[in-house]
Specification:
Length: 282
């Protein structure tokens, strides 16, 4: 998974050691191999390790930005004006602007969501809302994610107006996330189990000890596949929302959306939301 520069309100996904290695291997795998004249040595040594240079661009303070890719994953690094030092990490301007995020949005190629959307339509999910929907949203969620809970609350009036939400469970936030997700999917009525979790959110409840990955290996594998799918959409945390706009274009939103964004996301007229807990999201 690539570094995701975002200030969206959501719960961030904790990367495994393997995933972190995949992200930062571009920088950490440098060697002292021979280099070509067109790239600074610190970039060429990465190229010699299988990294591809997708683009270079002028960056702040006389630095040069480089969009590097490996196995379809992109990252941005910088070289100093003398081309002798490679810098990886966030670049922040004196005004506090996240330049790394701006560069990523401008220079990193946009993913082809159409290629993974077909898998999203077939993945393990919990369907809530209208049976004959006027609009459909897909939402990746963790049972312990407070921003997922707020999203659920905000979408209830839209469900009453004809929205269907296809909740895609993942489990990473807390030790109880996996057993809670397994309990939902193992239930005779996953939608009712999901709603019970949301209606009682914040009230400490540990699922029975029997809901473990070893006891339900097939469900645990489905949750792992959902997590992989979530990363393919570029989400670095929950909620991660996917939908098609009126033209059929696939849209994504990482984090709790603003209430003002919901009509465009759902394709439905604005609904009255007077829950005081949601006031900060207006």
């Amino acid at each position: 998974m690539l570094p995701k520069f975002s200030n969206q309100k959501g719960m961030k996904l904790k990367l495994s050691l393997k995933q972190k290695t995949a992200v930062f291997g571009i920088v950490l795998g440098l060697s002292t191999s021979a280099f070509a004249a067109e790239y600074p040595k610190v970039i060429q040594t990465a190229v010699n390790q299988g990294v591809k240079v997708a683009k270079s661009f002028p960056a702040a303070s006389g630095m040069t930005g480089w969009v590097l890719s490996r196995e379809g994953q992109y990252s941005i690094v910088f070289t100093t004006p003398d081309s002798k030092t490679l810098v990886a990490g966030l670049m922040i301007s004196e005004s506090g602007a996240n330049l790394s995020q701006e560069y990523a949005e401008k220079y990193i190629p946009k993913p082809d969501f159409a290629a993974v959307f077909k898998y999203l339509e077939k993945t393990t999910m919990i369907v809530e809302g209208a049976k004959a929907p006027k609009g459909i949203l897909y939402a990746f969620f963790d049972p312990n994610c407070p921003f997922c809970h707020m999203t659920w609350k905000a979408l209830q009036p839209y469900e009453a107006a004809g929205l269907q939400v296809r909740w895609v469970p993942v489990a990473y936030l807390a030790p109880s996330s996996l057993p809670k997700a397994i309990e939902m999917l193992a239930s005779a009525n996953p939608t009712s189990a999901f709603r019970a979790n949301e209606q009682n959110f914040g009230k400490e409840k540990n699922p029975p000890a029997k809901y473990t990955a070893s006891a339900y290996p097939e469900i645990a594998k489905k949750l792992e596949k959902n997590a992989e799918l979530m990363q393919k959409f570029g989400f670095n945390g929950t909620p991660g929302i996917v939908w098609k706009d009126k033209s059929g274009k696939i849209m994504v939103k990482n984090g709790m959306p603003k209430l003002s964004e919901l009509p465009a996301m759902t394709g439905l007229p604005e609904q009255k939301i007077d829950d005081p807990e949601l006031a900060r999201f207006r």
